[in-house]
């Protein structure tokens, strides 16, 4: 059990039989009435985000999430196959479970699988990945007074806004948390 006063971003908890990760929280002490904790939680089973308020001092279950290293092997139709790096066991996840992550996954990429009591909940990506630009317009000289950007399509199909000096076939560092351009690799 964990006290809601001890919430931290990224903490995994069990509430009403579902597994959540804490995205954001705020301790509120109103002038009148009891203190409470307002939180934003992401359901790890279906990906939905909910806002939930707890009374200060309330205790809830802590979920013990297991992280294992796996390699992304290939995609076939709606299934994406991974291999456990220790046991070499292969398993598949469907595209619905990996909606956001598919923007960054490349074959033979190492990621962490998240599981709870043997149930696979999803994957954890590294905070940044290197992706190649497959399509972008050439930058127009003289259009750089205000840090202008242009659209670029990456090898995974993700579209990002990049500075004008980025060209086709450049390899970029992309933040997997928000899908934004960080720098050239």
TrEMBL record:
Xref: InterPro entries? Elong-fact-P_C, NA-bd_OB-fold, Rib_uL2_dom2, Transl_elong_fac_P/YeiP, Transl_elong_KOW-like, Transl_elong_P/YeiP_cen, Transl_elong_P/YeiP_CS, Transl_elongation_fac_P
Q: Which organism is it from?
A: Paenibacillus zeirhizosphaerae
Gene transcribed to yield this protein? efp
Query: Domain named Translation elongation factor P/YeiP central: which ranges?
Result: 67-121
Question: CDD domains, alphabetically?
Answer: S1_EF-P_repeat_1, S1_EF-P_repeat_2
Presence of keyword Cytoplasm:
yes
Report the main location listed first in the record.
Answer: cytoplasm
Q: What does this protein do?
A: Involved in peptide bond synthesis. Stimulates efficient translation and peptide-bond synthesis on native or reconstituted 70S ribosomes in vitro. Probably functions indirectly by altering the affinity of the ribosome for aminoacyl-tRNA, thus increasing their reactivity as acceptors for peptidyl transferase.
One Pfam annotation reads Elong-fact-P_C
Which terms are listed as keywords in the entry?
Cytoplasm, Elongation factor, Protein biosynthesis
Q: Where is the Elongation factor P C-terminal domain?
A: 129-184
Is Cytoplasm set as a keyword in this record? yes
GO MF entry, a single one: translation elongation factor activity
Q: Which domain of life is it from?
A: Bacteria
Q: What name does the UniProt record give this protein? A: Elongation factor P
């Amino acid at each position: 059990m964990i006290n809601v006063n001890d919430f931290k971003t990224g903490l995994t908890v069990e509430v009403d039989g579902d597994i959540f990760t804490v995205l954001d929280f705020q301790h509120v002490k109103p002038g009148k009435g009891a203190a409470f904790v307002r939180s934003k939680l992401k359901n790890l089973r279906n990906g939905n985000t909910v806002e939930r308020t707890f009374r200060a001092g309330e205790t809830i279950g802590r979920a013990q999430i297991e992280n294992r290293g796996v390699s992304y092997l290939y995609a076939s139709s709606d299934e994406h196959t991974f291999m456990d790096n220790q046991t070499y066991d292969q398993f598949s996840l469907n595209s619905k479970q990996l909606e956001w992550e598919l923007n960054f996954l490349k074959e033979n990429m190492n990621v962490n699988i998240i599981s709870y009591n043997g149930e696979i909940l999803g994957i954890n990506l590294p905070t940044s990945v290197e992706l190649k630009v497959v399509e972008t317009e050439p930058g127009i000289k003289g259009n750089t007074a205000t840090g202008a950007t242009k659209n670029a399509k990456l090898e995974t199909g993700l579209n990002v806004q990049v500075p004008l000096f980025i060209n086709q076939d450049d390899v970029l560092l992309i933040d997997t948390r928000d899908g934004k351009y960080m720098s050239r690799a």
